[in-house]
């Protein structure tokens, strides 16, 4: 994966092969550690390097704070046979900042991918100028960073998850936020730097929030062998992302995955994007709550109320969710005909609504997927796990950068 | 690219590095040859091998009949400084066989990618049992092979281009042919073998015709820097293919690209695929001719008549093509929102209808592509070149296999 951040400083180590091998070993320890204990011998077998080479690389990674020994069988001798290795729970980490319509969620993920600190605030970013909304997110991020430092975590970069078309560090268009051509990355970085005088400036990346939620689902969710999937996240907007063969499809301009603006009815209601009858107008949060007759309760509370009513058998709630499911299924059938993915994953507000949403969506897919491969209830339409979380995906994207080239992110005074 | 054919025999040469380098050098000569003259020194610089290594590899490729010297500066001395190299115009070649609804087209492509023999027969494959249609195609192929041998070309494999869902050598479903679970690859290979007693059996591959037309467009068309595009081909059905970053997206089951069965109107006319209101029912050949009031003239003649009438300003013809363009644009806007390709290429019957088809399609795209990046007439919607030809793509796919591992396709007695 291409680096998402500008490296912190000039790359001192010119031995690119060694840098590559450091990355291989660090990843191997992380992956082996997920399934049991990682040892130098196990890592050597996995990456195809000699035991001696691996020992030297492990040494450097321990000196720089990327690896630790579990200590269980630590003997203090050179060679340390059988000692279990782990990625450090302290040191380099990633900061993820999701700025959505009605909340900001910030989290810190360590090298193992574990979420360690989380701070979420419910607020309304629609009524706020973009610069102010980003400054507010920076304040939440600064507080989250304080908590991370207390846990001896050292975030080396931040990634912003934003609900709109993101490219070149800017939000080109985020209809539900009312943002147009907002240089979000720069504004956020400046606001955060101003809050932390004396600290090194944190490099900042940015990406569409559905893309990052899909990556989080891929990395941390329960997808098993699934490597190609379409990801939909129901929020105030309807976001989407495409993962093909384990890689995010960003598209020629970075705008792939905008399934919320696939047309359902060409003469349908006007959409904030400028078109008419987009899926968002039938299966977005506002449309759902309106159709269910839930007025005056916004955001998460409104969705919980909708779940409660549907669960109690309220006919209007059940019909509203069912109709949204039909429209979702109709649009998804087109996407499946086009892409032929292993699975379609529904996240965001759709997770809790699956009992009423999935059957009509499945029926549309069964009737309209031309390959006849769609079997209702066959597991290709599934709810996202709780892992499908854009803030965690953003933080993990930063960690990927560290794993790709640990030397670039070693402590300035490390060694 | 993974080999599409079963290699002809056991791989005698165990030196995989040398085999890989033979492939590199053969491709380098082909690519350099397209832009001027390929020399040993030029090839060495391109592939990063020593001049001596390249000379040895060139020697082997010439002995096996893959390369020739142009002779212009041929001195007869060892080392041959400055001698121009070319891929052979004789020897290994690919056979492509497109079996479509109302025609069969067979072609032979040489190592340089040039179409050398072509035989097309207009007939109706709908009224014929699948086995008989395949046997008829094999007879056309056998005659084409005779012509190839006369030109000292030696097709080493065949690829079938088929209008339907193709996987594992079988047509799973081809609604417009009325085929279901037809083992096309085996039936064709057997029929061809029966026609050529005493000849080695030709290995046969198979693939969806739109996929192969898209590859032909990528390899031989005028796409320039475009590496990601959506390809639509209007025929009796509407086929589609997705090329992302220069690679065909086959999908999890091999069924990606079925844009003809994306729903336009959920309550629309029944489609042969079992769904309702598919794009094919609005922009397929039959629907177009019917809407234009052209009855009783089928196939290519009907389409030419439609072009003639539209060109003469016949209101019904112009309206029919315009409406098809609107429906195409509507479905394409969804696909562009999802995929964000560099371009959308329209082939088949759409090529000649572009003057009346493109403006309404462009208008739909402009209004509905959420990124606002779609500019009408901006060149992202374009007609395919004549290169977008499934039979040539099929033959070229075989040639790709040869270029990937020439040793596997050397003359049995070569050396």
TrEMBL record, chains A, B:
Pfam families assigned to the protein according to its UniProt record, in alphabetical order: ROK
SUPFAM superfamilies in the cross-refs: Actin-like ATPase domain, Winged helix' DNA-binding domain
InterPro entries found in the cross-reference section: ATPase_NBD, ROK, WH-like_DNA-bd_sf, WH_DNA-bd_sf
Family: Belongs to the ROK (NagC/XylR) family.
Name of the protein in question: ROK-family transcriptional regulator
């Amino acid at each position: 994966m291409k680096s998402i951040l500008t490296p912190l400083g000039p790359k001192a180590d010119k031995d690119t092969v060694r840098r590559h091998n450091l990355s291989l070993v660090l990843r191997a320890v992380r992956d082996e550690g997920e399934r049991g204990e990682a040892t130098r011998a196990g890592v050597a077998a996995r990456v195809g390097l000699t035991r001696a080479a691996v020992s030297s690389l492990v040494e450097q990674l321990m000196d720089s704070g990327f690896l630790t020994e579990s200590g269980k069988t630590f003997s203090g001798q050179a060679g340390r046979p059988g000692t279990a290795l782990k990625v450090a729970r302290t040191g380099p980490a990633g900061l993820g900042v999701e700025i959505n319509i009605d909340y900001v969620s910030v989290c810190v993920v360590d090298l193992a991918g574990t979420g360690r600190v989380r701070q979420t605030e419910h607020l309304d970013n629609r009524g706020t100028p973009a610069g102010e909304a980003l400054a507010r997110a920076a304040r939440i991020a600064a507080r989250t960073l304080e908590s991370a430092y207390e846990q001896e975590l050292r975030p080396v970069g931040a990634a912003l998850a934003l609900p709109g078309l993101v490219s070149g560090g800017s939000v080109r268009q985020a209809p539900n936020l009312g943002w147009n051509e907002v240089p979000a990355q720069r504004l956020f970085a400046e606001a955060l730097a101003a809050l932390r005088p004396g600290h090194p400036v944190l490099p900042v990346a940015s990406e569409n929030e559905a893309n990052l939620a899909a990556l989080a689902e891929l990395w941390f969710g329960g997808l098993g062998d699934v490597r190609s999937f379409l990801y939909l996240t129901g929020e105030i907007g309807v976001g989407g992302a495409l993962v093909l063969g384990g890689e995010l499809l960003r598209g020629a301009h970075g705008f792939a995955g905008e399934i919320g603006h696939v047309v359902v009815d060409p003469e349908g209601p006007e959409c904030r994007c400028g078109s008419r009858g987009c899926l968002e107008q039938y299966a977005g949060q506002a449309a759902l709550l309106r159709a269910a007759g839930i007025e005056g309760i916004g955001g998460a509370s409104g969705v919980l109320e909708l779940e409660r009513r549907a669960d109690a058998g309220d006919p209007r709630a059940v019909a509203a969710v069912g109709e949204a499911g039909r429209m979702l299924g109709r649009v998804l059938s087109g996407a499946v005909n086009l892409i032929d993915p292993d699975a379609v994953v529904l996240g965001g507000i759709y997770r809790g609504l699956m009992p009423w949403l999935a059957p009509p969506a499945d029926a549309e897919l069964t009737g309209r997927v031309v390959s006849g491969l769609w079997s209702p209830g066959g597991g290709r339409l599934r709810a996202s796990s709780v892992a499908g979380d854009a803030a965690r995906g953003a933080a993990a994207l930063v960690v990927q950068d560290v794993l790709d080239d640990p030397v670039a992110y070693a402590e300035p005074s490390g060694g």
